[in-house]
Amino acid sequence: MRLRDRCSRPSLAGAPPPSPPPATGAFSPRTRFDVSDSIPRSYYLGHHHAALRDISSRLSEVGLVLECRDYRVPITSWNPILDRAIAGRARIVVYTHRDLGTDSPREIEQALRRFHRGQTAAGGTPAPEIRHVAQGIDSLTGVRALVVGMPNVGKSTLLNKLRKHGMQKKPSVARVGAQPGVTRKLSSPVRILDSEKDGGAGLGEGVFVLDTPGVFMPYVSEAESMVKLALVGSVKDDRIPMVILADYLLYRMNLADPSVYAKYSDPTNEVNDFLQGVASKTGKLKSGGEANAESAADWIVKQWRVGQLGKVVLDDVNDEAFREKELEKAGQGPVSMSQARKREKEAKKDRALNKTKAV
């Protein structure tokens, strides 16, 4: 695995190591985030299902899959059903939005290297990795590749960067947007690397990439994972209240470095106090001067999404988290709402039976 632009400074991302008890009056961040049961557990829409079907039907035509995962949520944005759908094809895992993740990536990238041992993974624009894999395929007709991933993970942006980098073409060929759902169907093939006659040695007719719609998971077992995916923009902003997203962002910023929001508020665990400070500084007020919490939350979340409020990786990136995700991929975790309800019902029966035996 190769992830470029590494930094040797210690990481602030994920859960911090245990620290000594704070001095009297010192700020102490929350160590857990309590997520409401009202959080939806899916964003699996009709065009996601259609896209998954189309991706599966086109696999026989492609020699390479570029699977995009968001560097800010490298585990949560790994989609098990998409993973199973593209099994058997050469794959490069591309971590997008790396510039928004953390300034201190050493620990995260060490964990990613351990996890991807024997696989190809990259950050940024992976043209060298694509060229290497394509030359290994060595097809006279060139190589067709699919770029896949969760909604709004950066697939279309990656395609545009690859075309610009590999072909020195400036015009964008794939539409991009701040909300998920911009790409609704598979695109036409776009050349990103030249043919042999134009200098692409070992590439046949060249490398062509097809953009695909984002595919969400039918069911997300952890409500906190849904909040993370909404915070990075994989879920439309009207599905989970912005105040909840701002509260989760506050929780993660406090674990990393509360000074990143010092211009808006003193360190706090109270989202209402935090949003009051944001509203006062940005003019997000109702008539009468009362803070408009929703408007302030919307503004602060969007600031963070574009890197204007510190850089925080939302997942706790460690070997145990990867093992749990592997179990989910292998089908040992619920993949649909009905399966989840069935398993919960069975668990309740088992608990009741064990309670009866104990009596």
TrEMBL record:
GO MF terms held by the record: GTP binding; GTPase activity
BP GO annotations: mitochondrial translation
Annotated segments matching region Disordered: 1-31, 325-359
Pfam families: MMR_HSR1
SUPFAM superfamilies: P-loop containing nucleoside triphosphate hydrolases
Ranges of Basic and acidic residues composition bias in the record: 341-353
GO cellular component labels: mitochondrion
All residue ranges annotated as the G domain in the record: 145-235
Keywords: GTP-binding, Nucleotide-binding
Tagged with keyword Chaperone: no
Protein name (Swiss-Prot/TrEMBL): Mitochondrial gtpase
